[in-house]
Each structure stands twice: as structure tokens, then as C-alpha cells.
């Protein structure tokens, strides 16, 4: 059986055009990691954020970064033994920091231990910034304003104190908690413990911030009125006056174990910066940020610059955030941590204790520091869940019946 040969098409084949490398098109359409990195770098270089343009997401991300710095600082400055210049100044501490940071196994711990406390300055800035944004035109009385702050913060304060009291009672007994620590806790919740001679830090060290923030809230209506009447120069003059008052009064108050560093007076310049940033157009340029970084470093060694370190750190961190903002705002994890920041701040000083006792080597310090932070975030998320209002379910819509049986009346009968 003869097979029919296949039909072969003849003719000139179409020439395939030679692909030419188009570098301009490659820059636009390429998804390679190199070009994505270039795109990110261009975005970072062109970021010029006005501080008055910070939105809710920005402040939440900044809270997350600040609270993470605080959590690791609170752990490592005990585990490593590197102390910070926060409430007082000692140039020898910078030497201890340098001795630790040059060792690769201790560099991360030393950086957080010495500089991580600047997260507190970011919280102070954001507190003033948020109040100036949300309560600037508030016409309520001082008592109403303070009561609104109490209703917002004290449920979480009370839950954290209860958590600490239960754990401490199991360790040293309920009698010590009630008789010895109880009065100090009550003074702390009243917002005056940092002003009482001899008390110093509360039973949980980071809780000094509770009376501090309540004192700052109490001063905000005055700061708002002052700014409305005289503008931002009045805040600058007030900051200078509080600086000189702190410089003169702290050596005298030290005899009674009281320091203004735990009060808004010593940190007035950061509070005023938060108000100015919220109400006036302010951009931190590179020529402002670079000297700020230099002051943060040099002010750790030289007493003449030490009083400028806190506000310089805020400038440096905000400038750095403005450059990293496009990347940081994509992180859902940071936004979640920022929402839990209050609970994390209150709980981390309790959770860290058992982990610090086990941190005997640099590797264990890093590992247990991360574990302690993770446990803190987990407990804080649970506390946040307990205090969150229950979601309201939409009311079920009952469909009308197809027919209704009406009672017979005498007329119808």
C-alpha cells in the first residue's frame, strides 16, 4: 500500500527579527532583585516628609520601632551590664559601651543597652504630637480632658498591675505586695510617685513612665493655651527655662532622691517639639540630621553636649524614619506591634526577669532577648484582646411572613 508523502510547504520563511537589548525598557520592566533595590534606593533618596504630615499609620509604626528599642534595651542593659545616660550623666559609661561594642558577639546587645532608651523620647514626642493633632480645638474642661485620659489608659494600667501582683505574690508573698509595694503603686497610679522623696523607681522599673505621662497630660492644656497666644517661640523659651531649672535644681533634689529627669520639666523640649511638629510645617533636612547624629555620639562623652542628646536623638530618628518610610509602612507586623505598644511597655519589665537570670553568654543573651520580646508581645496581644470592645454583630433582619393570621373581630363575624 503506497503511502502518500506529506505535503511540504515551500516559500520564503519569515525572518525572525533579532532582539536588541533595550536598557531603558529593562529598567522599567525588570523584576530582578538588583533593579528592585535600585527602585527602593531612589524612593528613599527622594523622601522629604514634613513632620506635620505624619498620619495614624506613621505614628503607629514609630511606636512599634520605639517599643522594640525599649524592650531590648530593658533586657540587655541588665544582661550585659552596659548602662545608659538617661536619668543622670556619667562619661565613664560611654567607655564601658565602647569596650563592649567592639566585640562582634556583644555589639548588638551593647547598642540596644546604651542607645535603646531613646525609644522613650519617641513616645514622649508622639504623645505631644497626638494631643496637638486630636485635642487642639477641644473646648472641654481640664477635668474632662484628664478623665478622658484616665478612661483610655488606666484599664491597661490596672491589668498590668494585677498581672505583676499575682506573679509577685507567688514569689515573695501577698503580704509584701500589699504592705510594702502597695502604697508606692497607689502613688504611681495617682501620678505623683516620681515627686515623692525616697521612692525612686517603682517596683517595675519602666513604670516610672506612668506618672510621667499623666503629669504631661495635666500640662497639655497650659501648653496649648500658651502656643495659641504666643506661637512656637513661647514653647522654645519655655523649653530653655525648664532646661536651666533642671540644671539648677537636680543637684539640690538629689539629697532627697528626687530627679526632675522623671518629670515633664526635664523633657519639656521634646514635648514642645511634638507640639511644634504637629501645628507648624517642619522638615528635617540632612544638614540638620547629621549634626544631630554627631551630638548623640559626642554627648555621651562630653557633659557640655549631654543636655542636647535627647532632642538630637528625636531629630535623628525622625529623619531616618522619613528615609525608610516607604519600606516600613509596608510592614503589617510593625503596625500590629505599634497597636500593642502600651501593653508591651507595661509588661516587658515583668516578663524579662526569668530570662535575664539564664542569659550567661552572648549567644544566650541574644536568643533569650528575642524570646523575652516574643513572650511579651504574646501576653500584650492577649491583654489587648481582653480590653478590646466586643465586635457588634449586625442585627438579624427577620423577613415578614407570607401571610398573617389576624384575630377575627366582632365586625367581621
Order of helices and strands: HHHHHHHHHHHHHHHHH
Outline: globular
Give the helix tally.
Answer: 17
Sheet with the most strands, sense and barrel status: none
Supply the helix-strand structural class.
mainly alpha
Please mark out the parts with pLDDT under 50 across 5 or more consecutive residues, or reply none: 1-29, 404-413
Radius of gyration: 30 Å
Essential attributes:
17 helices; disordered N terminus; globular; 66% helix; mainly alpha; single chain; disordered C terminus; 413 residues
Task: Give a structural overview.
The chain is an all-alpha fold and 413 residues long. It has one domain. It contains 17 helices and no strands. Helix 3 packs across helix 5. The N terminus and C terminus are likely disordered.
Condensed summary:
The N and C termini lie far apart (100 Å). This protein is an all-alpha fold and 413 residues long.
List the helices and strands and how they pair.
Layout (H helix, E strand, L loop, with lengths): L22 H7 L3 H13 L10 H24 L12 H10 L5 H9 L2 H17 L7 H31 L1 H16 L19 H22 L1 H22 L14 H12 L6 H13 L4 H4 L2 H20 L3 H8 L1 H18 L3 H26 L26
Helix pairs in contact: 2-14, 3-5, 3-6, 3-15, 3-16, 3-17, 4-5, 6-9, 6-11, 6-14, 7-8, 7-9, 7-16, 9-10, 10-11, 12-14, 16-17
